[in-house]
Structure formats: structure tokens, C-alpha cells
User: Fold these one by one.
Assistant:
Number 1:
Amino acid sequence: MASYFTVFKDESKLDINYVPARLSHRDSQLNLLTRFFQFAIESPGKMAQRALVVGRVGTGKTALAKLFGLKMMQMAQERGVNLRYVHVNCRERRGSLFMILQQVILDFYPHFPKRGYSSEELLQMLMQVLDEQNVFVILVLDELDALIENEGADALYKLTRVNESRLKSVQRLSLIGILRRLEVLSVLDESARSTLQRNVIFLEDYSKSQLRDILAARVTLAFKNGVVLDDALDLIAESAEREGGNARYGIELLWRAGKYADASAAAEVSPECVRRASSSVYPVQKEAVFSLGLHEQLFLLGLARRFKKSKEAYLSMGEAEEAYRIVCEEYGEKPRRHTQLWKYVNNLTAVDILKSKGSGDGFRGKTTLIGLPYVSAVELERELSKRLRL
Amino acid sequence: MSIEEIFSSKGRVKILRLLVEIGELNISEIARRAGLNYATAIQHLGFLEKAGLVLHKSFGRIRIYRLNEDNAYAKAVKTLIEGWEQQGET
């Protein structure tokens, strides 16, 4: 077997789920968050806290929360406090309170039945479980926007008020909401909003030099010594800054640049690797698209073809279905029915490939409107056709 | 309760085995996995609970059963089943 050279030492350090032991330029926010929740270690059960972490994409919200969680768990263990940190991504749970609570409860009872009760009942069951096991939970609702979009103010209201109905008993459920914009909360009523907004931590966009620090720290962890050229790192930091101070983009670009270096058997990651990588990170999120099932890909292909010819930003569900049926005919596949397609739309929206919304006024009846705002239709069609070759 | 009474039913043995292997389960799941109907499963569980071998916790309408690890007979049953399964693996 031919041996090959790689610039990486440990690729996993560039994974989106990796939480570094120290977050550059987020120390003060981490301290603040820890201070908000200090009571959970010092006098658990006396109160429940709520906090929000707000910032744009790639400003370190999730990483901050997870690092905070690790630290809290460590401190709790030292003090013998039974504290659990539970991180739930609301979008992955389709913005449903039921599914979110279910994930939390499955953490305690892995075989808890999956159906047969309402989200209110589930919330009560969760509180009962916490009481019985004498556990305190810090529940992190990542991408809280999804929960609010899907369930309106109600779900959050229930979550924030669950402790109030138990005034005399021990307070067990604290919340941290992670969201991109505070305006999302405008659907909540005054009182719910004010209880949530008492503790808000804003994460500003990273500056170029901050991004460079972050990337340099990751380079040390993930790459072999000296293989990433300074100029390449500068270029990545610049691109990430242009993307709105998006560190996640920067890290993905760094990883991809490393992959390009490996693919061309280069000994180092040069600015050229970065340039080639940057044309591939966006607009098509290839992994996301290719991990889809056959019919989801066919559906997307139909959409891409329609959008290529159309000047409209949105297609109706009917038009999308028609485009999909034509593609199915071409590929000799039996088309899936409406409900399944509707599920595809939800799924594709959740992974940020599509955008969908209700038709609202100006349409006869009610339909879902589907947009393709993040990806070029031409490129998507090319990629999918290549992949789905007849 | 005598050992014959506990082990005289295939359904009860299946339920005990499930609880030893999985830990905690609700009734529907026990019934499904043991291939019993719901009513039979409840009957067996009631029997086993009366004998002190299993315990349940209620969450609203949901009842979750587990082996009663504080009970010496339950412990003996667990040892037996685990030992039995191990033999099967070798």
C-alpha cells in the first residue's frame, strides 16, 4: 500500500462538535455565564436561573455553552452536587417542545415510551424524574428560534413557568436559550420576555485578529507543526471576517484547505489551497446535500431546475411537486406523495438548504412557499446530476 | 412465593429476562418485546410485583418497571439469568 503524507495531526479538532478547552476572546462571557449559575453549585435548588446567549452565526455561542457545561459539571462533581447539563438543538428536534423534552427525559430513562402523552404531561413527568433522582438540570435550548417559530410563545411560557407552580418545592430546571437575534422574542408577552431577558450575554462578531487567534489555536491542535503557512492563515481569517466574523466558517475553511493540500500531495497548506477550498465551502454544502436520501435528492434536483429558469424567489409546493414528478419520471422512480414531500421540505429547511414559509395573503388557499436562498441553483443542479447519474 | 410459581410461566421468565437485560421499561414495551399481549403482561407484572421481584414507578399514565434490586430473590434471579446468558455466549 502506498504511504501518503498528510498535513493533519488530528482532524477531529476541526470538527464542528469539538469544544476546545479554552475559548479565545470569550473569557469574560464565560465568567459571566458561570456567575449567573453559581448558585447551582453553591445552593442548588434554591432558585432556577434563565439566561440567553445571543450572537450571529459562528460567534461561539454553542461552544461557549458547551464549555460552560463542562466546567459546571466538573465543579458540581467536586462539590457532590447532582447537576446535569443537557444541550438540545431545537432545530434538530424540529422546534417541537415535545421532542425537546423527550430528549431530556431519554437522558434519564433511555427506554421511556416515545408516544402517548402531551408535551405538558411530559414536562410534568420530567419534573417528577428530577425530583425522584434529586437532580438539577441546566437545559440549553440551542437555536431557540426554531422552537419559537414552531410553537410560538406557548412552549417557552410553559418552560419558564414550570418552576413557578412549584414555589415551595426545590427548583430544579434552569434554562439557557441560544439564539441569533433577540428580536425573535418579540412574539412573547411582556412578562415572559422580561423573565428571559434579565440575563443576556451578547457575543459580538469576531474581529479579524481575534479570528486569527482562534484559527491559530486550532492549527496547533489539528495540524502538524509548521505546515500551515502564515499567509494562508491570514487569508482564512480575512474570509471568515468577511463572512460576518464567522469562526465556524473559518474553521471549516481551514479543514478544507488542509484537505486540498493532502489531495495535491502538498507538504504545506498554502494560500492557493485556501483559495481552492473557499470556492468549495459555499455555496453548495456538499456533505449536507449528499447525506440526503435518493428522493430528497431528486426533489432538490427538480427544485434546482425550476429555480434555474425562474426569476421568482419562491416556488409553491405544487410547482415543486410537479418539478419533482418530472425528475422522477426521468430517473424511473415512483414519485413520493405529498405528505412525504412536505416532510422533505421541513427537513431540508432544517438543515438550511431550503427556506420555506406559509403562502399568506395574495394566494388562493394555503400553500407552502419554497425558496433556495443559500445555494446557487446552477451549481446544485450540476452537483446533483453528477451524483444521480442515470 | 415458591420458585415453581415464578418460573412456571414462560411469559414471566421472558419479562424477568428483559428487565435484567435492559433495566427499565414501560408496559407496552415489555409486552412488545416479550411477545405478550398487554393484558397478559400486566397480569404477569402484577404477579411479579406482589412477589417482590419487580417495582414500578408511575409518571402520569406511564408505568415503568424494573427489577427490585433490594430483594434477595430478585438478585438471585438476576445472577441466574446473567449466568445463563453468558453460557450461551461462550
Number 2:
Amino acid sequence: MASPCEVLIDTDDRSEAAAVVKVAAAEALRVEQKFSRYRSDNIVHAINHAGGRPVPVDDETAQILDYADECYQISDGKFDITSGVLRKIWRFDGGNQVPSERAVHEVLERVGWHRVRWENHALTMPAGMEIDFGGIGKEYAVDRAAAWCVEQTSAAILVNFGGDLFANGPRREGQPWRVGVDDPARTGEAARLQLELSRGGLATSGDARRFVRWNGKRLGHILDPSTGWPVSEAPRSITVLAATCVEAGTLSTLAYLQGPRAEAFLKEHDVRFWLL
Amino acid sequence: MQLDAPSPTRPLRHRLRSAACLLLASGACAGKATAQSGNTQLDTSTLFYTERGRTTVVEPMVRLTRSLSDGQSFSAQLVLDAMTGASPTGATPSKIAQTVTSASGSTSTTEALKVPVSPFRDFRGALDFDWVRPLGLVTPTTSAHVSRERDYRSLGASEVVSIDLMQRLTTLTVGGGYNSDEVTPIGGTPIGLSDGSVRTQGSNSKRVASGTIGLSRVLTRRWLVGVTGTRIAERGYLTEPYKVVSLLDSVGTPSDQLTEKRPESRSRSGIEASSAYHLDQDVVYTTYRYYWDDWGIRSHTLDFKYRHELGSTTYFTPHVRLYAQTQADFFSGGLQQGVPLPTFASADYRLGPLRSGTLGGTFGFHLPKSPGELTLRVEYIHQWGKGDRGDGETGDVEGPSDDHRSSVSSTVTHPTVAPVDIGTVVLGYSVGF
Amino acid sequence: MSSHRGVLGAALLIIVIAGMNGCAAMSVHPWDRDLLAEKKMKLVPSPTERAIDDHIYFSKEGSTGGQGVGGGGCGCN
């Protein structure tokens, strides 16, 4: 997952804490191994190299594909797990290199969930297309790991995988978990968003580190599948609170995809959010 | 800040939540992201209060608060007071021993130069109910009160509304309350400024209407300030039926005494400014209050607390309070015999020129492996009069107002308010579950 | 006299604090409300303690508390 992962457990029992971390780590590794696009031994690799042939999937993959499908519908096509292939023509290193219009057009031929056939527990995708669970995978891992932790202990736990969080309840004496969200572009106390989380999932979208400059504008690294270009003029960082990390992550991504309309979108849908 | 994700009302949220639930198939997904720490809160405390040579009070209190998921809360509080000791009668200390008869008919003899007191024993119970219902930015709180002691009964209700403005950085509070009290003095109600032999049976009513308006404001990330104004109008029987005013002979020796008499109305106002400032870990609380009423009393109160964090759940808060008040127009150390009586007179030291200083501290901690917070507070209060009233001095009287005549000057040289030493200990315990 | 001075002082304080609109709105963003969220950051941090003190000083002095209304009377003053 390429980010630091931790589990906070409010207990005095060291062995209990060790047992909880063990199951959380095991689940995190399992989810990563199964759904990472960087591996060559998992279902994602099989799907991305099927050359147009149908690929049967297991129940868990089916559930994630169902979720991705629903997100695609809800977002009118903006949330699209086949858009990952666009990263091949974009380099988000702070420079101002942008791909040519022709390059973008070519890649866009290979983007679009509507081109994918998902039915009867099998996925059929035209050759050259790829799916990427990057927008769902980490949050899913958080929620799954939390479910395992909760089975291991009755203590309050907070799962934090690289900034995507889930807390099952407040700490002892009702004390909430204190969470800080850093704005990497600014320094000092004032830049940090401080929250008191008692229960629920928290996810942040938008990364000030990975961007490209164009025409004086700063473009983030989340790509809009309808234009092939990064979403522009979105808030630098959107943090969302929801009942689960998956819901929070999807909402923050959906909001980010609205670009300048992100804040209006969040308000319109009664989302609890913070912008940095 | 309180994090509370509202239940989805929009189709997109509905669909997303259902989708997430299907994906996770866990109990958590249908739950509510929330910061509520529990549904019920129990607060209890016991106050041990003692004045050197005078009153001792033990006051246990228990309060239960139940919160609902929509932010409403209900609370009920029971306070019991057990009071014993001796209370000053208002009679002037004399150079010779005096015999004083108390309201209940018992007699006590006071040594020379000591403040005459009369013994008493009383028991009080009070019940308070509160109902808070947040409605978006407006939060009304409805409260009811009932209390009873041997000779006093009180019934009251109030409504206070707080309104959050400017992204919750400012809160406006407006409220009003009404109390209907009944005083039924033991042995009957004496006629004011008389020898107390004629008493009417039955109860006297006292009605109190009060209003408040306040504004609190977040100034910076660390600083919260507020100002509150209060206005109280009292009507009815406001006299202390057991207190007396001495009649002094030509050399200032108390030779007789009369029952005291206070006006039948009182208009009281107060304005209080407070501040809470958060340092690195500690918090400084400062409050100043200015009070005035139409009996001539004006007072200043300055209160200072410094909450020092000793650990994550332990703290110590030293506390200093300074108080000064001027005397009531009709406050009198003793009435001159042979001179026409004023309309009102009281020698109750609490209406006199008072100073008081409080020094104490609170220690807050948790027991290991136990929920709930404990507090131990120890305080020392020293109260004294403004000083001796020499010949011809009339204290801080401003001159006659409509209803009251200024008190007759006293020619005694004793302090009109004797110093009092008070010690208090409060043990508290709060837990949520 | 003193009554008018008091009311004037009160009005002035309220106007000053209400007028501090500019200061507050500019400097306290939502992510800056961490400290303010703590339970101890209230003008009256312990209502229980406040009630006890109000009762003690109401019985010993000639003034009443400046905060709020309601509560009950007692024969102690």
C-alpha cells in the first residue's frame, strides 16, 4: 500500500494488542496481495491480461466490482475503475509536461466502464483496458481489517492505513480519538486539521504532492475519465466522515471529481467534510 | 468538535451507503458516525462546609443526565442540605453579656463583645429538572425547580434559548425565569421594626422574575470570551424574620432589640464578563462581575482559576476569588434609642460593607482501571467587614432614595461585620455510561 | 446613577464583543477548533462547581450570581 499503516487499540493488555495487530496486518496484506495492480499473481493481473476473454471472479471480487459499478452509476461515469490506464501518459512530478491531444484521445478509447461486460460472475473487458482498484482498495482494507479487529477484542480500535481511518467506538471514559490531517503544502500548527473521532470512517482525497502545472494552474493526480485530463480546480484536500471508510473514501473521491463544484456537491448531499 | 454525520437524506447517499453495506456485509456500515460518548451521565458531589464558630453544612448532590441520539437531553438533580450551627441575629455586640431569644423560643446568652448568634438546625431538599433540545442553531433549555426547607418553599421554572451564529463562533443566550416562593416563619411572622411580640400566622409570598441576555464569542483558536447581563425583580416578603436590629442607648450599648424590616421589592442587576484562554496544555479562566441593586448594594467579584494539567487525566486548578460589596441603604449597626425609626433597617451582615477572599484548589483525577472522574476541592474563605464605623460615619450610603431612608448613623466603634473563617471541601465523581 | 452606569457598561461590553465579528471570523477556521472542542474550554467549565459556589456566596453575600436565571430560592438570604 506504500503508506504507513497502524492500528490503535485502547487497552492495557499487551497480548490483546498484539493479537489485534496481527489480524489487522494479515487482512491488510491479504487485500493488498489480492487487489493490487502491481502484482502479477492475483485476480487483477488476470483480468488485465485476459485479452478480451471473460474472467470468472470469486465472491469478494464480485462484490467489489458490484460496488465499483454502483459508484459508476451514481457518479454519472466520473468514478470509473478503468480510468487507471490514463496514468501511462501523465507524469505527476510537479513539472509541466502534458500529453498531446492525440495521445489523450488514443488512451480514452481504452477507458470506460460502459465498455466492460460484468455479468454472471464473470468480467469481460476489451483488450488493452485495465481495471484499477486504487480508489477503493485502501478504504476497503481499512474496513475489513477493522471488522477482524472487532472480533478479536472489545476494546476501542482505530485503524489507520495511510490516512484512511476507521474507529469502532470512542476510547475509555468516552474520550474520542484525536486525529490530525496534515496539509503537506503548509507547515505549522495552523495547517493541521484536528478532529475528535468517536466512531466511523474518515478518508482524505486530493494530494498536494502529486500534481502537474499547466497554464499557471495546478492539476491534481486524479483523472477525469470523460476528458482524460486531471481534475482541475478541485480543493487541495477533502476529508470526509461517514459510517465506513469505504463510504468516506468514495464520497471524497466523488467530491474531488467535481472539481470546482466539490464543496457544493458535498453540501448538497449532506456530507460531513473538511477542506484544506 | 462534535462529529456527527447526519443520516442520508439524499438518493446518492442512500445508494452509496447501501452499496457500501453490501460490500462490507458488516454491522458497522449501517451505523452512525458519531462523537457521542454515551447516553447517560452521572454527577455526584458532596459539600462539607464549616464556619468557625458558626454554621456547618453537609450538602450531597446527585444528578443524572440522559442524552438521546438527536442531541436532546434530560436531567434530574437532587440536592440535600443538612445545616446546623449558629447564625448571627443582627444584634450589636455589646460590652456586657446579652441574652438573645431566637425565633423558636430558645434562649442563648452571648459573651461580651462577641457577635450574638442563635442556634438553628435545618434541612433542605431541592429537585431540579432540565430539558435541552437542540434544533439546528437554536437550542432551548427548559428548567423546573422545587425546593423545601422547614420554613421556606420554592417553585420555579425558566426557559433559556441559545442561538449559534457566524459558523458557531458566536452564541447568543436569552432567557427568563420565574420563581414563586413561600416563607412561613416558625412562630409566625413578626411585624417589622417591632419588639416581635405580635406575630401573624401563615405564609408570606415572594415572587421573583428574572431575565438574562448573554453573548459568547470565539476570539482566537485559544480564546473564548463572554458577557452576560442579568436582571432580577423580587416582590413580596424579603425580610429575614429571625434577625434583629439592636436599639442603642446614648453611649452605644445595646439595650433592646427590634425585628428587622426590609422593603417589599428589590431590583437586582448584574453583568458578568468571563474568559477562557487555552495555553499549551493549561487553561486560564477569568471572571469579573459587577452587581448593583436598588437597595444600595454594589459589588465587584473577581474570580481567577488556572487549570494545570498534570497528566492526560489528572489536573490541579488553583482558585482565587476576591469580593467587595457596599452596604445596603438601610443597613444599620444599631438604631439610636429615642430617635424616630427609619422605614427600613437591617443589621444582617450580608447586607453590610463586606470583603471576602477565597483561596483554594481542585484536584481532578481518575482511579486506575475505573471509569469516571473524581474531583477533590478544598477552599478557604475569609470574610470581613470594611472596617470600623467611627462616630458620625454612615458608610457607603448615597443618600435617600424613593423607598428607603438612609440608616441612622451608629456611634459604636465595633466592626459592623465580624470576620468569618470558612472552610469547604467538595468531593465529586462523574461518570458516563 | 450607579444603575445607569451599570447598564451603560453592560451595553458597551455587549457591543464591543458583538463587534469583534471581524477578528473571530478571520482567524478561526474549522480546522482550528481543536482546542475549543475540549471539554474544559467553556466559560463555565464545571456547572456543578458553579452551582455550589453560587449557593455558598448567595448565602453569605448580598449579590446573586451573574450567570443565568432559574434555580431556586432558599431561606438563606
